[in-house]
Amino acid sequence: MEYVLKERIGKPELFIGRKEELGYFLNWINEIKEEKSQSSAIMARRKMGKTAILERLFNITFYKNDGVIPFYYEIKEREVSMADFCVDFFLTFVYQYIAFKTRKITYLAQEKRTNLKEAKVAALKEGLNHLTGIIENVKYAFENGHTDMLWETAREAPKTVALGQKEFIVQMIDEFQFIDEKIFRDKELKLRVKDMAGGYLSTAESKIAPLLVSGSWVGWLMNLLMKMLPSRFRYEFLENMPEDEAIEMIFKYAQFFGVPVTEETAYLMAKLSEGSPFYISSIIRSRCRDKNLTTIEGLAKVMEFETLDDRGAIKSTWMEYISGAFPRINDQHAKNIVLYLCRHRDREVTRKELLTELKPGMSDSRLEEKLKALVHADIIKQGQTNYDYRGVQDNVFDKVFRGVYEKEIREFDVKVIGQEYREDFYRLKTQYYSLLGKYNYQKGYYTEYAILDRLRVHAREDNRLLKSITRYLPHDFNFSDYSRVWKYESSPEYSRRFSVDIFARASIPGDYSIIGEVKSRDLKKFSKDETAAFELKFEEIKKLEKVEPAVGFIFSRSGFTKEAEDYCKEKGIACSEDERWLI
Question: Which of 377, 458, 542, 562 is the most buried (most CB within 10 A)?
């Protein structure tokens, strides 16, 4: 698949997991063609993967070219005039639309979004004459200072085009909460427009151009949608990843960034991070000096750095949230409230309990005002009623907050947090060994990681050894340098989903690429049926990825049945069960 929109996650293979969410929204986009899909909002804190999902949805929808036109726009966290915002929004849509209709991705380039006159020329050149009228309307409103007309025309453009051409468009707008905070009516940026979101009251009801918006300040976005756009959106909350996806991410990131982990420490990271992709990425990419993620002591040291040191990515991100709330409520009572809710985050707490236990010396209405500000900034959660509140369900935030503020409230030694990490890891280590048999899939991930790492780093220098422990390699085969080594998963646009555990693309033309399968089962041998199924995937990937020559390779820790062995020999599929592959 060609990724026409450059994704901020980096290399496409770093997009890991989110299978359920991606499947749900791809179906939601597909159902736009039947006018079934209602405008929706993805809610989650920063760095949970919302932007990655939207960008991947754009790329898949663009690539599929199957009746729905994707439009993606990010509202930046910077102040801008209403006129400039409208033109940028409109030109982004126009050029993405032209790119989709012509299949010319050069129209997606950032420098294209500068000039309405040039946009009209591009539309005429590509035979998309139906765009010229709406471009002229925007140009007229912009040049004559009719900002309300400009906003209405730009905002309605996707729906207008879809209606006029009997087409379907999905509008993906990232960081939607900034629309009423960062846009000003005047060029001097003094008169803030506070009702931009309200313009979507009717637009959001469109079934031919529905919206998929996201926001990383959950309380802020929900308040905006409920106040300005009541009953117009369905809310979809992006949760942490399930454990199997978290462990897969750990091994893949460890391999990609060259940071060693073990089966045990991967499990510990997955559990302590509670499946947060941001925490996993921050741990593996941490700037902590002498980073070592293969021992409990090394993990604890990295977690101390990430949550207590100002250079830690985890601490700095949480402090952005905290700074969003505390300038308005920066007093000891507010901090004490958060600490109390953190200590009791396993349950909801009423305002009455907070007044009784903390004795903040304020009225119930004043306390409610403080609590609303904390909810708005995502520092605490609203409970089932407006009278109930709850601490963030996150044991890492608890340590970040205590590390910064607890000493103001009571006698506290920040070194306690480091000890708590060590206690958590040793408790999880005991749990890991008690459940080891239940988590065989993790052993499989580790085996994949070990072989991928071997191919990426040591294959060429270990050429003689690896050839000696691998059967049925071509006579002229040698392990070589590989431009990329990763686990291969077919993109969701394919009707049949499949994956292989190893794809090592040779960096020199003429050298063999490797497409492989890994099984780490203790007892069951690799069967002939499994071998035949792998051969089909091998041939399909060779064709899709245009790799030739290539060799198929199967590593099975428990060996092969005789029928599978004979099939490998006949078809020239290399195989091995030798544990020296994992050293």
Answer: 377
